[in-house]
Design a protein that fits this description.
Elements: E1 3-5, E2 11-13, E3 17-18, H1 25-38, E4 43-44
Parallel strand pairs: 3-4
Antiparallel strand pairs: 1-2
């Protein structure tokens, strides 16, 4: 899994799994479970943001 190193030295995965649009709690739970079983380690519940220029 490719990672990126943050300014504080912590490494996080480059690719994550976002669930912010899933409104059904059971579907969200099942999706997160499957992603963890598949090896995903970055799961976010927030909508994407744009970089400020």
């Amino acid at each position: 899994m490719k990672t990126v190193k943050l300014n504080n030295g912590v490494e996080i995965p480059i690719l994550g799994f976002g669930v912010f649009m899933l409104s059904d709690p059971q579907k969200c739970k099942d999706s997160v479970y499957k992603e963890i079983k598949a090896g995903c380690r970055l799961i976010t519940f927030l909508p994407p943001t744009r970089k400020k220029k």
